[in-house]
Queue: 3 jobs
Job 1
Amino acid sequence: MQIDLQVGMPMELQTTSDLSLHQMVQAIVTVLAVINPVVCGSILLTLTPKLAPAQRRRKAVRVALSILIILIASALIGLRVLSVFGISLDVFRIVGGMIIAYMGFDMLSGRQTVGQATPTDDDAAASNSLAPLIMFAAGPGTITAVVTLAAVHTPDGLPVTAIVAAVVGAGVTFAVLLLAVGMGSRLGHGTQAMITRSMGLIVASMGMQFVLTDLKAFLSL
């Protein structure tokens, strides 16, 4: 009997460890999918057409830190904040999807005035120029994913899985943004304008997908 117990305990621990690793990988993949770092890199280029590579890198740092702060805060207190105001996740995603779709239509039409920041702009203008990118990367879809991960994997205590996924997601996004800055310095204004409109179509489509999917879920309640 002693032998059975000694053999069984490592197997149980291994199974628990494998399950935790699977949950962690699944959470990281989920967060990366909704952040979409590749699209974020393209958006950074379209929002900063007149900035030098060094200034774009500084903006990439600011974006990555903003994403990290928003997602960690969402993992820790996101669900409680929505509950205090009586807002469901479906409604939150619907409104957020409408905002993202509006930003996409702006990019598609070429109006996108928030992205025309110049090197002489003050800090407030610089922050405003990053708002569409931060809203896209750490918007309602990403926040909902992180909040859900925090609620499902760690109903009590510290949401380690959601926090690790947020850190990895922000780190990968930062790396892709830096890569995009390096590539963007070799692109002409015409190419960047074409990328802007292409990304606008994608962003608008994703925003509308949020709206339609969650509107259907909300109406079926």
Job 2
Amino acid sequence: MSDENNALEQGGGEAVAATQPKNDAEAATQEQAATQEAEKAKEAEAKKAEEEASKRRNRTSQYIDGLKNRASAAERENAEMRKRIEAIESRFPKQEAKPPTMETAGYDPEELARQTARYEVQQARQQWEEQQKSESAARSEQEKVQAYIHRAQAFTSQNPDFEEVVGSIPQQFLIPELQKAVIAHERGPEIAYRLAQNEDELFQLATTRPELIDWAVARFASRLDAAPPQQEAEPAPPAFAPTPTNKPISQAPAPAPRVSGRAPTETPPEKLTDDDWYRRDREQRRKR
């Protein structure tokens, strides 16, 4: 037995010696190889993490580009709509203010000069106001889009599948009025996310009249936080409350039957039903 133990110990010693470095140089080589392998593993993990982060950034940038493209498409559609309206209005000229004439001034040169000055000021002011309105509308739309993009990025951090879910909305439902209403709402990303998951609500909003779309979107947003109605639970009975069936049992003897000289009122046979008549007849036969 001792020989076997010695043999095992010697064999184990050879195995251990095979894995241990023979000298300092070999130990340094093994340590360097282990360090390189650890560094390669770290680099592989870092590269994988960077690729995943790059994919997320790409998805976010693609979604943002999609928003910008949709906003640009909406602006182009609005521009085309304005052109159509202008073309229709051109068929019915407006009664615009006409420049003053000697006839309108009563053939008074001084009055004509005053009317001409007022007319030129009014025209210049009108042009300036129209330009300001156009620029203000463009700035407002751009600010809304930028604000929506920031809100979408914040919402994506909590819902990583936001771009994928919203990107699945069919194009036929993305009407310009609905997009503008969702982008302008402070909870726009959440609204878009929920609509993408609810085809019925999406269809209803997409088919809503344009003049009611803002109200419809706000109404849908107000229902996002509405909790489902809960039924009030019935209060539990006290632990030691007596149940309705546990009535106290009286120990007194049953009362003696009362004997009355009058017979109970009997129903005339003609007023009895068939079942009652049969029951009475059987009872009478039994008493005989």
Job 3
Amino acid sequence: MARKRTETLLAARRGTDTTWHGTAFVVEALVLLAFLAFALAVFMQLFGVSHARGAEERQLTQAVLLASNAAEEFAATPQAGSTSAAFDVEGNALDAAADGEGAYVVSSEVTPERTEGGMMYRANIVVTCDGETVYQLESARYVSNGSATAGEVGSGAGGAAAASSAGAAAKGGDAA
């Protein structure tokens, strides 16, 4: 009888270095997996920081808009005293009792100063959200004695405004 070969062609191809190639493939795959996990972690952190920064910028933009509206109202009718109004995230007015999370509170304090020719009204407008000052605006409005009475605006009156962003300046951002 003919003698059968115990080794087949496939068995002959497998040699002593077969385990080395398999081990190298596994090590390479693990290194690539570790690099992929590291890159994914870095990108997730970048996206998280980007999301937080975007939320802060949306909050600052809304606060600037609300403060500008309050300054325009003050410029139209400067009256001494303090006022406060609450707004939701989209700028819609809320009831005084509705103080929900994320609500903006616009407080303005107007102080009159009598001058020789009329009244100088100075307004300090502060926008807060969740108890933290987001934006602050200072404005002034002069009403002369000849053009208007106290509390009314005439055509000869002038005004000025200065703004600062408390939230952005405290966090190292640019002041608006």
